[in-house]
Amino acid sequence: MVVLSKIYTKTGDSGETALGNGARVPKHSPRVAAYGTVDETNATIGLARLHATGDMDQALARISNDLFDLGADLCRPDMARDHEAGYVPLRMLESQVLRLEAEIDAMNANLTPLRSFILPGGSALSAHLHLCRTICRRAERLAVELATIEPVNPAAVKYLNRLSDWFFVAGRIANNDGKDDVLWVPGLTR
Description:
mainly alpha, Hypothetical Protein Ta1238, Chain: A, two-stranded antiparallel ribbon, 5 helices, 53% helix, ATP-binding, corrinoid adenosyltransferase activity, cytoplasm, EC 2.5.1.17
């Protein structure tokens, strides 16, 4: 369990932060950028949830929790040395990726196939889900970049990739099952 009795510690005043294994790194390090952008994605889920109800709200709440797990995974390097931690570090699992895929398939089953790209908008919930999608894509790009220089759990990267797709399909669901999607019209304003 996490206990936060004091919010400011002053340990980051020099521009460094601690990773999950205790190592100190610059706050601008690729690893911090990756899990920081996962946190940003999660904050936008909070905005989306202001407009969500029922199953959509429950799914977003679960994904929000998953993103804390993902941040915990990304903030702990040295996956090969997990056994030395004295506990099992939290890592994303392939089953979490598969759950997103199943949810995407279920949501997409009732949607009319797209004949155009979609512009963000329609309902407030859809617009917020598209914002979640674009920030999630940035988190994915940063995690992929990090993986070129340091070990990263492949399931974490896959989860981000599927999650952005989940947000896209959920955005269509939030637009009256795609009936109120705002479609791109190429060259409309020429």
